[in-house]
Design goal:
With about 450 residues, the chain is an alpha/beta fold. It has three domains: about 10-130, Gyrase A, domain 2; about 140-215 and about 395-440, Four Helix Bundle (Hemerythrin (Met), subunit A); about 225-380, P-loop containing nucleotide triphosphate hydrolases (Rossmann fold, 3-Layer(aba) Sandwich), CATH 3.40.50.300. Helices cover about 45% and strands about 15% of the residues. It is built from 16 helices and 13 strands. A seven-stranded mixed sheet has the order 3-4-5-6-2-1-7. Strands 9-10-8-11-12-13 form a six-stranded mixed sheet, sandwiched between helices. The two termini are about 20 Å apart. About 35% of the residues are buried.
Length: about 450
């Protein structure tokens, strides 16, 4: 059972762990200001603590009666604060020792150490933000690039919430028309099945566009995972090192050097790619190599895309090309490596097998055509149309939207097939509570635990 009490006064360090120029300790709850004033002494005698005004003072241990730090204190009066409760922020030097002492004194005088995400949870429960905005706080903090930050801020600013609320109003409007026609059949209310069907189609289209934005959102937030796949000794580790621009993988002229997998992040045209260098796919000589090959196939199957690597200095590609059939449903770029050793394959024959998949020739060792390869990676695997429309970042959101979309489709099908209003109105009616859960108005403990459990302490 997910249960963060709202009655306690909580305290936490809200700045990152470690040494820094500034550290902030935050308190929230009815006793936030009284507790803070037990350890904070304004430098100017008689200074009033006015809401939203920074006051300079010293931090003091009342038992020792001597200051140990200079700090600013700001009080935010309820409900005009982040949590909608009384909030105090103490800004001092970012010394771990000092910050720990502030926490120690705060808990001695009645505060409780905050749990992960508890400040934002109080903002959600206080009605300042909804669940989509609460999750966007963590997304914004963790954003690995400015585009992800922009999208997360758009959610935090309430854009997606407003559009989903508009969708709910449209559904309620359609429900009202249908249910009025059912309730008062003698009134002959002007309910047009064609207009209802058009409305269902429009709402389904919006949900489909939002669901389609999941891959782009996840790619922005987590990066695109690319598996480098090929037979042993085709130069996978050399290419891995070349794309990273440093020697990360061990490279030898002997097949089977890579037994496990290596994962590193590289940025190509403002998108993060998680590159995975793996064991070559061949008949294993040892139990260790067999396990490495099993893992390679598993990782490749789960990756967002594949770089198929072939040895261009070899004439026979038949065994290599069978790998394409194994991963035929994956986005892929075909890379013919080692052109510095001379090109031997019949590329016309190869083109007939690879279809429309993009391919190019490179020398990972010499760096030949490496920039062209990066451009091909960006064009093939980078999320598309990120600047247009909404994206969603999390799987639970995608699954919830898919459920709503499925209900709209069933309602539209029943309507198109001429079934009575009583049948298809049930499907539409179920979308209203589903939207309530999506926006967090209907509390789901599992969703709350998943969201706030990912937060850092102090946010």
């Amino acid at each position: 059972m997910f249960d963060y009490s709202l009655d306690d006064t909580i305290i936490a360090v809200s700045t990152p762990l470690g040494r820094g120029g500034i550290g902030i300790v935050r308190l929230s709850g009815d006793s936030a200001l009284p507790i803070a004033l037990k350890i904070f002494r304004p430098k100017k005698a008689g200074s009033r603590i006015l809401p939203g005004r920074a006051v300079l003072g010293n931090l003091v241990d009342p038992e020792r009666k001597e200051p140990f730090e200079e700090a600013y204190l700001i009080h935010f009066r309820a409900p005009h604060s982040y949590t909608t409760q009384s909030v105090v922020e103490i800004s001092c030097h970012g010394s771990p020792v000092v910050l720990e002492e502030v926490l120690r004194l705060g808990t001695r005088f009645g505060a409780r150490l905050a749990r992960p995400g508890e400040f934002t949870f109080r903002a959600y429960r206080g009605g300042r933000i909804d669940i989509l905005q609460a999750e966007a706080v963590d997304d914004l903090i963790r954003a690995p690039n400015i585009e992800a930050a922009r999208k997360a801020f758009g959610h935090l600013d309430g854009g997606l919430s407003a559009r989903m609320a508009g969708l709910r109003r449209r559904i309620v409007e359609i429900l009202g028309l249908i249910e009025a026609a059912i309730e008062f059949p003698d009134e002959k209310l002007p309910v047009s099945p064609r207009n209802i069907e058009a409305g269902l189609e429009e709402m389904t289209g919006y949900l489909d566009a939002l669901i389609a934005g999941y891959d782009a959102g996840r790619a922005l937030l987590e990066g695109v995972t690319l598996a480098i796949v090929g037979r042993a000794n085709v130069g996978k580790s050399t290419l891995f090192n070349a794309l990273l621009a440093h020697e990360r993988a061990i490279v030898t002229p002997f097949p089977g050097t890579t037994r496990d997998f290596l994962r590193e992040k590289v940025r190509i045209k403002d998108v993060d790619f998680n590159l995975v260098d793996m064991a070559g796919l061949r008949r294993a000589a040892t139990a260790v190599e067999k396990e490495g090959i099993r893992r390679s196939r598993e990782i490749a199957a789960q990756a967002d895309g594949i770089l198929f690597l072939f040895d261009a200095s070899k004439k026979d590609f038949e065994e290599d090309l069978t790998l394409l059939d194994e991963f035929k449903d994956k986005k892929a770029v075909l890379v013919f490596n080692k052109i510095d050793l001379g090109r031997k394959p019949d590329l016309g024959k190869v083109r007939a097998r690879i279809g429309r998949r993009p391919f190019l020739e490179i020398s990972a060792l010499r760096g030949t055509n490496l920039e062209r390869l990066k451009a091909a990676i960006s064009k093939t695997f980078a999320p598309r149309n990120v600047d247009r429309g909404d994206v969603i970042f999390h799987l639970w959101q995608k699954l919830a939207l898919e459920d709503m979309g499925a209900r709209l489709r069933r309602a539209k099908r029943l309507l198109s097939d001429g079934h009575p209003e009583e049948m298809y109105v049930e499907e539409i009616r179920e979308i209203v509570p589903a939207l309530g859960r999506f926006l967090g108005e209907i509390r789901s403990d599992d969703v709350l635990a998943d969201i706030f459990g990912r937060f850092c302490v102090g946010k």
